[in-house]
Amino acid sequence: MWPLYAAGFTTAFGAHGIAANLGGFSEDAVTSLLVLGGLLALYDGAEVLLKPVFGSLADRIGAKPLLVGGLMAFAAASALYATADSPGWLWAARLGQGAAASAFSPAASALVARLNPAAKRGRAFGSYGFYKSIGYTLGPLLGGLLVWAGGLRLLFTVLAMLGAAVALWAVLAVPAVPPLPKRRQTVLDLARRLVDPVFLGPTGALAAATAALSVGVGFLPVSGAAAGLGTIATGAAVSVLAATAAVVQPYAGRAHDDGRLTTRTGLAAGLAVTAAGLGCAMLPGLAGVLLAAALIGAGTGLITPLGFTALATSTPEERMGQTMGAAELGRELGDAGGPLLVAGVATLATLTYGYAALALLVAAGAVVALLRRAAVSAS
């Protein structure tokens, strides 16, 4: 399992480590906010388009070859800019990194599911989410230190070495998981499975959690600055969010496996806590920012391992890659849609109303989850 945790760390560290440092340390390549937005969108855009494709491919050829190949491609894309050091190659490198992450990220999730029995999947996904959250937390900090020490090329060099090392580790330590025989699936069969509440419920919760997390990381510093807080205080608040999400995930997974927390109850509770966190973001001052960070982190920490566990439990083993790829697509849409919603409402009114709009949507998801739980219990 350790190489899979390392793969989760790699994609998170690579995404946030570079994104957090592009604007301030690459004046030759980032000449305007539009260029910065394009570079940031390249990585996520590649993931949105390719994750479902690579997820299905993992079911066809096996998840391990896709995991290793994706990590090697990530290393090659990172080395591209590290050696070329040209603004034009930076675009190619970011696109290559996003495409490579689209391959090894759903493959790693599928392997987490297939290498663990159903009774231990909560723990496994909790640990996987923990190390991924550590990557998100440390990416901006360690990435900034590397860029300060040796420029953007040093960061890309470290990412190339990290990707290659994890790929070699996976070759040596991850067992081969051959693809399973499966019956022919038509496009209509796939559509029916993707609109089934068993898939839509956990995926919607994962998308909502990712949307809230992205909004918290991006907009809580804005709220803090408006309240007169310095960069250290606002940075600490974002760290509280990421650290809380990382710590809660293994506990949530363990509680599920021990029978103390069901996926329906956990997802509903996670959505409710996340909505409460977004509501606290509407409060002025440091208290509102810290409460929002802690609650959003706790809510997303509950949702992430339970959502993936629910999907793995309800998915045929031979379709695990396809399901994980589609679920990752849902998360990416939440990652993009949450900030867009908040920013759009804030442009028309204020940031407080932007938080309120997303809080209402997430709370509505919690209500739907509770109603479905009550309906299942009644039947």
List the helices and strands and how they pair.
Blueprint: H1 2-25, H2 33-61, H3 63-84, H4 87-114, H5 121-173, H6 187-194, H7 197-226, H8 231-257, H9 263-280, H10 285-314, H11 320-348, H12 351-378
Question: Can you offer a commentary on this structure?
Answer:
There is one protein chain. The chain has 379 residues and is mainly alpha-helical. It is built from twelve helices and no strands. It has helices at 2-25, 33-61, 63-84, 87-114, 121-173, 187-194, 197-226, 231-257, 263-280, 285-314, 320-348, 351-378. It starts with a helix and ends with a helix.
The low-confidence runs, each spanning 5 or more residues with pLDDT under 50, are none
Secondary-structure class? mainly alpha
| Average of per-residue pLDDT values | 83
Largest sheet: none
Strand content: under 5%
Question: What is the count of helical runs?
Answer: 12
Count of beta strands: 0
Residues in helix, %: over 70%
Rough outline: globular
Radius of gyration: 20 Å
The separation of the N and C termini measures 38 Å
Element order, helices and strands? HHHHHHHHHHHH
